[in-house]
Amino acid sequence: MYNDKIVEHFNNPRNVGELKDADAVGDAGSFKCGDTMKLYLKLKDGRIDDIKFQTFGCAAAIASSSMLTELVKGKTLDEALQVTNQDVADELGGLPPLKMHCSNLAADALHNAIANYREGKQAG
Amino acid sequence: MYNDKIVEHFNNPRNVGELKDADAVGDAGSFKCGDTMKLYLKLKDGRIDDIKFQTFGCAAAIASSSMLTELVKGKTLDEALQVTNQDVADELGGLPPLKMHCSNLAADALHNAIANYREGKQAG
Amino acid sequence: MTSRLIYMDHGATTPLREEALEAMMPFLKGQYGNPSSLHAPGREVRNAVEEAREKTARALSAQPEEIYFTAGGTEANNLALRGAAKIRNGSGHIITSSVEHHAVLDVCKDLEKEGYEVTYVPVDQYGKVNPETLKNAIKDDTFLISVMAANNEIGTMQPVQEIGRLARENNILFHTDAVQVVGQLPVDVQEMNVDFLSLSAHKFNGPKGIGALYVRRGIKIAPLYQGGGQERKLRPGTENVPGIIGLGRALELATEEIPGKKKHLESLRDRLIKGLLGIGDVILNGHPDERLPGNVNVSFKYIEGESVLLSLDMEGIAASSGSACSSGSLEPSHVLSAIGLEHSEAHGSVRFSLGRGNTEADVETVLEKAPPIVERLRNMSPTYHRSQ
Amino acid sequence: MTSRLIYMDHGATTPLREEALEAMMPFLKGQYGNPSSLHAPGREVRNAVEEAREKTARALSAQPEEIYFTAGGTEANNLALRGAAKIRNGSGHIITSSVEHHAVLDVCKDLEKEGYEVTYVPVDQYGKVNPETLKNAIKDDTFLISVMAANNEIGTMQPVQEIGRLARENNILFHTDAVQVVGQLPVDVQEMNVDFLSLSAHKFNGPKGIGALYVRRGIKIAPLYQGGGQERKLRPGTENVPGIIGLGRALELATEEIPGKKKHLESLRDRLIKGLLGIGDVILNGHPDERLPGNVNVSFKYIEGESVLLSLDMEGIAASSGSACSSGSLEPSHVLSAIGLEHSEAHGSVRFSLGRGNTEADVETVLEKAPPIVERLRNMSPTYHRSQ
Ligand SMILES: Cc1ncc(COP(=O)(O)O)c(C=O)c1O
Ligand SMILES: Cc1ncc(COP(=O)(O)O)c(C=O)c1O
């Protein structure tokens, strides 16, 4: 059902955890399917210098979270905002159709974090 | 489906054929299931001295015809009239439920032959 | 069954072929997972099921997602007819033929009780539907035509392609019961213009208890029943995995073998027909040429089919009959009535259905054993004597 | 499936046992006749089918003529419910529970659309129906009650006997979906006061694709579909002979083995429950005692079931989950919702269903592998951290 890349990201997710001194924090949750994700960004020179996530969700959600963090690390916020759910899924080599919604979480959390940051909200 | 006795009577039916000089002839037919039977009686001293049948029908019909001729041979007409369809079936060791109607043919043909005889009809 | 058995009842069912059983065995042993399960034992079974679906689709020139596995031909027919009817909510008109299998005919009768209107178009003396007659039966609210690809009793092939074209031109769904044809003759759902097609594995040396319905992509029908959502909700229930695997393998092989098998069976069939007609007072039922490669159906005049069957059986020959007495009903087969046989002729019908494994020697044995049986029974028959 | 597989998904399906396969083999090979055929190859198969029917009846304290073979539990449930409803012609009231399998629940929903009225009685926190509640739901036109014998997800047993008595007192038909119970615990249709009972062979080490419906003698229901008249017209279609034979043999053996198996599984179950609860922040779903001998269902708080499953799978442990993500739907299982679990708890549910072949060593392995998996996933979870 899941390809090797997804399984690998599920087993060894990149950038798991919290950033105590995050510059931006974003949340996303699918009330219906129950998955939730929290994303922490540390910025430097306008770029994402460090990023961490926490996810409650299925393997697809966890792997998508992991992949997103890899995709946006080092990008500017504007560049990061270009990354779509589809990009995440594509980079993972495709998700099962029924699991596509699980990949939405990651980009949603990123957008939320950036919006929070731009609205001047601080982490915490 | 059929027991050995029925199969034996089907394979070696007793008293098959015609009696050219019959004293009584009877017919029976199930219009619906299509079986037909013809029964020939030769009487002597008020008893059935010889009996023959012809049957178009399934194995149950043929075996029932054969068994009936055995059951009534040597009997007076009144005695013969006592023989029922159930008797024929019982003597054959039982017929499959769906085949019970096939045994009716035999006793019906006998009744018809005796009635014809008593009404003074001659064979032919 | 002893080795001397001559099995000529392939229209009723066929032996499971070894290659199909071999394909099934792993799924009767170690690979027992539920294909709906997430874990490895489930996933590997899911892959095998989907492979079987692909094989099935390929044999019909269909797409895998157009194949729904059922418990057999009966369920496939019911699913197509009832499924297409149910979404119409109790009204509309259906056209079928008077020689369909009970798994279509009796469904139509039941649908009539539920409020649908059904026209049963007659057939000619060979059992063939005339497309013109069918065309004239079309009404404004006709939503479904169901005509079998070939008849199970008398083997007559129907002009399915033409009927399909008619249906399409009139925007009517078209179902064909191809249970007797799949695996025997080439089947192409595109060429046939069908929207639904039923098949049953045990008719082409696959396992019993498994069949499939082809449903053209985009056509919506209601399921017969509800459950865990398997087969994209159209046919729920834990999959009969070994059955599905066996069906796929048997169909793959049968399809490959069609050209050779067809020729072989037709030659046996024609020899058998010729020999049986030679007995005298024997009628061939069904079409002289446009019939299933393995189907021989004759009426032995003046005698009754079941008694012929039983006598053949004692000689180790397995055949079947449309006689009322062999089916346990009082009426002879509706098919034999529909082609206009008299009651007594219908009662004398015997079907020899040839299949994989039958040989010329089998046919010769039948032709040797049948005449004395017929003679013996005729000598017992009141009608035979009367007519001499 | 490698040899190291620890299969704890017997609630989904079970391996076919060797003795059942052995019994089936002749019918997958030489004995291929159609049981409806008159000839010897057909008759010998008919005898075997009827013997299997007798075995099935005996296991339920029923009569052979009360057993109808179907393609599985799903079809059996549908046949009972739809069959009882159909003869009522679209009106009347049905009572069922909120924790039924989809093969009952979704049938009821569909019957609602067809005009029947349905009451779904709630369950308590353990998943149990209260007979009093059910009694209060009875109306003048209630004609059918359907309550499962035990739940497939959380294992909770229902007070079937009491419900049966209630139904009988009120002249209401009573169906029980006993798919999870037959072969696991003693079943006696007389004691249970049931009119219909569904079973499925692949849940008790029989073959997939075959099940049966018990219908109390004298009770009339309509068939789901029409065809050649098999199973006394209630379930037409050429019989799945190997399946039927395998069902009969597997059920005969399972029934004999119940006492020993029950004790064994209960002890494994209780050990597994205790060990899992020891991980901390783990909830037992279902009833503490009145549950299926092999059923363990827990929710691991703060994490999601599918990710647990997949991690277990990589360790060679096969289990299942009521999580939405594992079923491909968006909603978690209706059963977990019905017993009042919060969304997040329902999402964290995992079912280990023990069966024949599971050992103490299996349980110990699970108890060794599960805690680090749970810990790893919790360490990734935003909710876990928040709640510390
Ligand atoms: C033409 C036709 N349709 C349908 C069926 C029913 O198939 P099954 O018995 O496999 O359900 C058969 C065979 O019995 C058949 O010959
Ligand atoms: C309680 C219950 N009822 C019905 C079914 C359906 O049985 P089957 O999948 O064999 O049709 C199942 C199993 O899936 C079940 O657990």
Tell me about this structure.
- The complex is a heterotetramer, with 2 copies of chain A (124 residues) and 2 copies of chain C (388 residues).
- By secondary structure, chain A is of the alpha+beta class.
- Chain A has one domain: Sufe protein. Chain: A (Alpha-Beta Complex), CATH 3.90.1010.
- Chain A contains 5 helices and 3 strands.
- In chain A, strand 1 and strand 2 form a beta hairpin.
- In chain A, helix 1 packs across helix 2.
- The longest helix of chain A is centred in the C-terminal third of the chain and has 19 residues.
- Chain C has 2 domains: 138 residues, Aspartate Aminotransferase, domain 1; 236 residues, Aspartate Aminotransferase, domain 2 (3-Layer(aba) Sandwich), CATH 3.40.640.10.
- In chain C, 43% of the residues lie in helices and 13% in strands.
- In chain C, strands 2-8-7-6-5-3-4 form a 7-stranded mixed β-sheet, sandwiched between helices. Chain C has a 3-stranded antiparallel β-sheet with strand order 9-10-12. Chain C has a two-stranded parallel sheet with strand order 1-11.
- Chain C is globular and about 70 Å long.
- The chains are: A alpha+beta (124), C alpha/beta (388).
- At the C-D interface, helix 1, helix 2, helix 3, helix 4 and helix 8 of C face helix 1, helix 2, helix 3, helix 4 and helix 8 of D.
- The complex binds pyridoxal-5'-phosphate (2 copies).
